[in-house]
Amino acid sequence: MDKNVRICIVGGGPAGLSAGMYLEKKGYENYTILERLDRVGGKCWSPTYNGRRYEMGAIMGVPSYYAVHDVEEFCGITHDGPQLNRNYKSKNGKVIEPFNPKKNILKIPRLLKMKKQVKKLGELLETKYKGYDLNGHRGVAEGRYEGFSQANAKREPVKGENPNLKDLCLPFNEFCKLNGVELIQDIWIGPFTSFGYGYFDEIPAAYVLKYLDFQTCMNFVKINLWTWKNGTQYIWEQLNDHLKHPARLNSKIEKVERRDGKVFVTVNGAVEEYDKIIVTAPLYIPNKRTDGQVGMVDYFDAREDEKELFSKIDYERYDVLAVETRPEDHPEISYYVFENMTPETMGHLMVYYRRWKDTKDQVITTYALRKHQKSKEIPYEECKKTVLEDLKIMKNPASNVVNEWSVYYFPHVFSKDYAAGWYDKVEAMQDKYDTLYAGEIMSFGDMDETAEYSRELIERFF
Ligand SMILES: Cc1cc2nc3c(=O)[nH]c(=O)nc-3n(C[C@H](O)[C@H](O)[C@H](O)COP(=O)(O)OP(=O)(O)OC[C@H]3O[C@@H](n4cnc5c(N)ncnc54)[C@H](O)[C@@H]3O)c2cc1C
User: Fold this and answer.
1) What are residue 266's DSSP bridge partners?
2) Three-class SS of residue 410?
3) Any residues with CB less than 8 A from the CB of 275 and at least 6 apart, and which?
4) How far is the CA of 405 from the centre of ligand 1 (A)?
5) Is the four-CA dihedral 162, 167, 168, 169 of positive or negative sign?
6) Of 124, 162, 210, 455, which one's alpha carbon is 20 to 30 angstroms from that of 273?
C-alpha cells in the first residue's frame, strides 16, 4: 500500500494508539487519531487521589503481554507498580482459604480432583485444541486457526485445520462438561467473572481461553503479574506523547461517509478526507447510555451487512466504585468473594482492590456485574447500594464514594452467533468499505489483546 495513504483512527485507547505506533513502525505516518474524550487511554483510566494514581479501569498485565511490552520499549517505560496480592472472603465477610486443603478437610477429594482436571485441561489445550490461543477469532467456528502465535514475543504466523476448535463456540461451562474438567471453573472464574467478563453459562469458551490461556491463568494463580506505578493510563499517555501524531482530543465525530474510495469524516463541524478508517471505538451499543457513547453504526453510513452483524454485539454492565474508608476500616489486602460471582448473586460485590500497601489514605475500588444474558439488567443505583452494603458486611465500610463508573465493557457475541461464523463474516468485511474494525470486540477486552489485534491488523492490511 502507498505509504502516504491517509488513515483516520477512531478512538485513543490501547487499540487506537497502538495502531498508530505499529503504522509508524511500518513507515505509514499519515494517520490521525480522533478521541472523543479529553484524555487518552480509554478503559485504562488512572485518576489521582492524595498524590497517587489509582485504577478505575485496567489494573494488571502478565509477562506474555507482548504488545504492551512493545509499547513499553517504544516509550522507554516499564511495569514498576505495586505488587498485587489477595485473599478470599465468604459472602458473609469471613476470611476463607478455599484452595488450602488444611483449612478445608472435607473438601480435599474435590480439591484433588480439581488439581487433576487442571492438568488434564492443560494437556487438552496443547493437543486436542491446538491453535486455540491465537489472538483474534479467525477460523475458530470453521475448525481452523489462523493468526500469529502467542507462544513467544516473535509472534510468527501460523495456520492450520483443527475441527475440535469448534467446541470453543460453546458456553464455557458446557465446554468444561464436554471435556470432563468442570472443576477448573473454580479457578478460571477468579480472573474472569470478577474482572467483569460475564458468567460461564453465557460466554463462549473461545473468549475465556484466548484470554485465560493456560499460562496466563497460571500467572494469575501464582500472582506473577505486572502493574504500573502511575497507572495503566500512563502507558497510553506515554505512547501518545511518543507518537508523531498524538491523538486529537475532544473530537466529536458527527458523520462518516464512505464513497468513491474515500472516507469523509465530519468532526467538530468540519469535513476531513481520508483514504482508510480504522474503528477501535464501539461498533454497536444495544441500549441508550447516559455517558453519550454510541456505536459506529449510529454515525457512519452503515451498510446493511455492517448493521446486521454488529447488531449481534452485547456488552457487560460492569460497575466500578472508588471509595474512601476510615483508616481503621481499610482492608488488609484485596479480597475476592467467589460466592458473589454467580448469576444468582448478580449485583453484589465480587472483588475489591487495595492498591497501596504502605498507606491507608488511598481509595479502594469495588467491582460488580449487573446483567446476564437471560435476565433483566439491575438498575445502576440499586447495584451501587448493594455493593456499599456488601462492604459493610465485609467489615470494610466506605465513608465516601469518590469516583464511580458504569463501563461499556467487554463487547462480545453469544454462542449461537459465534458458531454461525460471526467472526469470519466480519473478518471478510475488513477493508471492504475502506474500513477496518479493531478494538475489543475483534479479540478480547484486555489491553494486550486489543493492542495485539491492532498489530496484526496493520501487518495484514498495510
Ligand atoms: C474496570 C476495568 C478493569 C480492567 N482490568 C484490566 C486489566 O487488569 N488488564 C487488562 O489488560 N485490561 C483490563 N481492562 C480492559 C482494558 O482496559 C480494555 O480492554 C482496553 O482498554 C481496550 O482498549 P480499546 O482501545 O479497544 O478500547 P477502549 O479502552 O475502550 O478505548 C476506546 C476509545 O475510543 C474512544 N471513543 C469511543 N467512541 C468514540 C467516538 N465516537 N469517537 C472518538 N473516540 C471514541 C473512547 O473514549 C476510548 O478512549 C479493564 C477495564 C476496566 C473497565
Assistant:
1) 255, 271
2) strand
3) 5, 6, 7, 261, 262, 263, 434
4) 13
5) positive
6) 455
**Predicted TM-score of the model (pTM):** 0.97
pLDDT tens digit sequence for 386-421: 999 999 999 999 999 999 999 999 999 999 999 999
CA pair distance 336, 349, nearest whole angstrom: 9
For the chain, the residue count is 462
CB-CB neighbours of 209 under 10 Å: 21
- Render pLDDT for 273-326 as a digit per residue (tens, 0 to 9): 999 999 999 999 999 999 999 999 999 999 999 999 999 999 999 999 999 999
Residue 263's contacts (CB-CB under 8 Å, 6 or more residues apart) are 8, 256, 257, 273, 274, 275, 276, 277, 434, 435
* Cα(163)–Cα(142) distance, integer angstroms: 7
Choosing from 43, 195, 370 the residue with most ligand 1 atoms within 8 A of its CB, the one to mutate for a pocket test is 43
User: Does 442 contact ligand 1 (Cβ within 6 A)?
Assistant: no
**Residue 68 Cα: closest atom of ligand 1:** 11
Alpha carbon 307 to chain centroid, angstroms = 23
Of 447, 449, 455, 457, best ligand 1 pocket probe by most atoms within 8 Å of the beta carbon: 447
